[in-house]
């Protein structure tokens, strides 16, 4: 008897970050005082001017109908202008495909260029969705791990050691989810030149491009290495920058033939993105970055706070990230020690203990690569950071 669920879909793992967030919310709904550091989304409301654009759009009958699969022409043009403004990367509107959130852009990028058996180099720690999209496309994930001593940044030498004649692409994410690490312009150039020399595609996730601290910059790889333009796909969206995770608007930028092929796929998959959301996205990417900078100031304050508090916990080692809104401490110094009679040997076991004993939710390193780490999102209030990390410190230093 054949299985009820296809082998392809059965092999896909649930999103660990969403699972942790769902568990924390379920416990909160039961009245438990859970503090969640799991979800990767800003805790701010979408700026008012964007919401008002959506309200106005909802009243326009044309927005109640189907529109072109690759996106509203006005939004594609706005993304062209925004890309020139923010990255100094010159593209045309037929190089843009608007997608239902960044995740669809990730999936379609791999589905469009990866064939069965192609290898994709995936710097680790990595966002939990990447390997699942590679798998769905028939590709093989080759993890390249950089630990906290490298600030979680892989080197060209590591990439070259992992390269084979089956290597088709590399996924490049800076600023990084889950670590918050940011590659320097020199590192971006070196990786880009290596990819170009070896005829390897670059899929560059730039979703956190505006969340930078301490003078860090996140240059777009094809700007620094112009020769890559024909073998580079850029992924982006409004979710993180404008606090619009629920609006579901992302996009792909790439060579025209790749965008045309991905558009064909999307025409059968989801058709166009919600027109109301697209109209909101036009307001977002066309407006100034004042609201973005205000959110960035709050994230910067929280970043410093959570790093200081985590490094006060015995056994935790937390590098200071310079991007995104995550910290990624090593917790290897805690593993193997007794915590209220329980002895965690993995970061997954430690995360369970933290949730059960002090009602703090963090995502274990196993979701992003090797065990021994926890990801905390500081897209939450200062008070929750102080209370939540304080609970962990109290637990690990009692008795």
Can you tell me about this structure?
A 7-stranded mixed β-sheet has the order 2-8-7-6-5-3-4, with helices on both faces. The relative contact order is 0.16. The protein is α/β, with parallel strands linked by helices. It has 2 domains: 7-45 and 291-397, Aspartate Aminotransferase, domain 1 (Alpha-Beta Complex), CATH 3.90.1150; 48-286, Aspartate Aminotransferase, domain 2 (3-Layer(aba) Sandwich). Strand 3, helix 6 (129-136) and strand 4 form a beta-alpha-beta unit. It contains 14 helices and 12 strands. It has helices spanning 7-10, 16-29, 48-58, 73-87, 101-113, 129-136, 156-162, 185-197, 221-224, 256-269, 275-286, 290-310, 347-358, 382-397; strands at 35-36, 96-99, 119-124, 140-145, 167-173, 201-205, 232-237, 250-253, 326-327, 360-361, 363-364, 374-377.
Count of helical stretches: 14
Give me the CATH fold name of the largest domain. Answer: Aspartate Aminotransferase, domain 2
Shape: globular
Helix content: 40-55%
**Oligomer designation:** single chain
The low-confidence runs, each spanning 5 or more residues with pLDDT under 50, are none
* Architecture per CATH nomenclature, i.e. the level-2 architecture of the largest domain: 3-Layer(aba) Sandwich
How many structurally independent domains? 2
- Structural class based on helices, strands and sheet pairing: alpha/beta
Summarize the biggest pleated sheet: 7 strands, mixed
Spell the H/E element sequence. HHEHHEHEHEHEHEHEEHHHEHEEEH
Q: Over all CA atoms, what is the radius of gyration?
A: 21 Å
**Spatial strand sequence of the major β-sheet:** 2-8-7-6-5-3-4
Distance between the termini: 56 Å
Keywords: Aminotransferase, Pyridoxal phosphate, Transferase
GO molecular function, one term: pyridoxal phosphate binding
InterPro entries: Aminotransferase_I/II_large, AspAT/PAT-like, NHTrfase_class1_PyrdxlP-BS, PyrdxlP-dep_Trfase, PyrdxlP-dep_Trfase_major, PyrdxlP-dep_Trfase_small
Cofactor: pyridoxal 5'-phosphate
